[in-house]
What we know:
Radius of gyration: 14 Å
Helix content: 25-40%
Distance between the termini: 5 Å
Shape: globular
Structural class: alpha+beta
CATH topology: Alpha-Beta Plaits
Mean pLDDT: 92
CATH class: Alpha Beta
Largest sheet: 4 strands, antiparallel
Strand content: 25-35%
CATH architecture: 2-Layer Sandwich
Order of helices and strands: EHEEHHE
Amino acid sequence: MFTRIVEINTQQGKGREATKTINDQVVPLLKNQPGFVDLIVVSGTEPDRIMALSFWTNKEDAERYSREQYPKVNEILRPLLAAAPTVRTGNVDISTTHKIALGKAA
């Protein structure tokens, strides 16, 4: 399994709106992508900072999404952003939810 970790810094006071936009407009798009497994959106003590973790069957599916669909997602969110999102990627080594144990990751 592979993950994309997107750090989103919104304009002041736009964090909740960005989270709602992700739920309403981005999640349906993600669900139609080959290899998409799950999305977790996390907000914390900084309400205008959001972390979105998307999980993919493999690196190739995540890269295809990044090339073909992520620019559309970025456009959807752009009016709410204070800066361009930061994207990091990596293999999922352990997940209790997805039943991945260290050494068993794809």
